[in-house]
Amino acid sequence: VAYIKNLPEPFDVFQESINALLGEFNIYNIDMNVIKSILNKAAGVFLKINSIVYQFFFILFFYFLFNIYGYRLFILITRLLPMVKKFKRILYNETSNTISSVFFGTLFSMVMQGLAFGVFLFFTTDYDAFYLGLTAGFASAIPVIGAYVVILPVVIVEILNQNYIFASVIMLFSMIVMSVVIDNLLRLVFMNYLNKKFSLNYKLNELFILLAMLAGIGVFGGWGIIIGPAVISLCVAFITIYLKSKA
User: Is residue 142 part of a domain?
Assistant: First the structure.
């Protein structure tokens, strides 16, 4: 209780709202089993979030290594696979270009969501817009929950301060502008632009790549961001190779 009433930085931004909430009832009269149950569930949620963030940074590291050693990997594959060289090149190009599109599309979404949330807070509240926008940008890359790791605490603070209308505005902004417009529509437009600008020439439609990412996340967790599109691109590459071999 003493710790809750004296939160350390940067959580002290919520201190006033929490003190107001604690002042409405006597926390010492609450059943300890209820408190333990709430704390255990909260700990479980944070452990899952920690696991997802941990996986995401491994994914970034994997992509970094893939860019450095990708061509060497291609040379190794050409020696192992029983295919003619042009078919091996199709297989490599389809997979590597799809993964590149997914990575830069995710990076674009991170920057745009962080910028949008920061600008929104700058003009509507007295929160630290730069800090929360930057945090929301990084959090937006976390599979499934994304920037809501940052958005939901802000909404809860507004609800505790009885600013119900503004809390609803924040949620609507995050769902419509950040989730639908930026994360879905603008990301697809940007991935299509990359395909044309840098001649990535992958066969998959950008919407299909997004669906593959969502399906991959559901099956493989955080790694599904890479594995989902990679599996689909491999299937498309093998189909292309089969059709060319029959032509």
Answer: yes
